[in-house]
Amino acid sequence: MKAKVLLIIFLLMLPATICLAWKYTPYSTGIVVDKNMIVLAVNVGGPAYNSGVRPGDIILSVSDGGTSISSLAARESLYASETRPIVVNYKRNETQLSTTIIPTKLLDTAVKTTYLVIGNAQDNYDRLVKSLTFHPNISALFPIQSMDNNLKMVRTYSSVARKTVNEMPIYLIAPGGSGFGFTALETIGNFALIDSKDGQWSILKVNLSFRAEFAHLFGQSWENFTSSGVLERKLIECMFDNI
Fold it and tell me: Sorted alphabetically, which InterPro entries does this protein's record hold (predicted)?
């Protein structure tokens, strides 16, 4: 009898447990780099930004706990959701610099949604529109609903099944990571670009709201959650890829 009661309690708690796992906030370095380890963007006020790293810097090496990380793993190390400090050696113009980035949870919405990006606002707006229009995965998740070329703003809405995006597991947008029980994703929001005050970079503001549909033993339910930042990072990477 006791075993049956425990089983019933477990089954009742399962949907909530799945949803809570998706609402966990991961640690982040707040940096976006391309395949050549050139810094494309940093979260304004994030760990990399506060450590002095700026768009256009070139990452030369990454070390973790005194161990140098190979070039193949360095990019993923910068993206890893871990708490260990990361020592980054990088080059700005012809000057070699070094800093320590301490990953933190990006709990401040302004920090999490604001990126300082390499390049000017107009060029990056063109890159953004191109990615949202032609990239096979990004265009499925962020189809353009309307555009304002004067404000350099794009509005988006989508509701897609999990299987819609083959090369990019859309459960990665949430920090739960496993995708267990995840069946669909609804996204609404906008992207906006302006030039930075000094004109050296541009600022990308990403305002997105997510709802995920979960299947469980008692049916299906929708839950709102905060993005882990993975999908936004992949969007910026796509902006600077050749589509």
Answer: PDZ_sf
Residues 226 and 215 placed together within one structural domain of the fold: yes
Q: What is the tens place of the pLDDT at every residue in 10-30?
A: 344 444 444 444 455 678 899
Q: At what angle do helices 121-134 and 230-239 cross, to 10 degrees?
A: 110
Count: domains in the chain: 2
CA separation, residue 36 to residues 39, 52, 159, 196, 214 (Å):
9, 20, 34, 24, 37
Residues 202 and 111 in one domain: yes
Residue 174: count of CB within 10 angstroms of its CB: 26
How far is residue 179's CA from residue 144's CA, in Å, rounded to a whole number? Answer: 26
Chain segment 94-113, per-residue pLDDT in tens:
999 999 999 888 777 777 88
| Residues 46, 151 share a domain | no
- Distance (Å, whole) CA 37 – CA 91: 11
118 SS3 class: strand
Cα radius of gyration rounded to whole Å, the chain: 20
Domain of 210, CATH number, reads: 3.30.530.50
Return left, alpha or beta for 108; rule: phi > 0 is left, psi -120 to 50 is alpha, else beta: beta
Query: What is the DSSP-derived secondary structure letter of residue 34?
Result: -
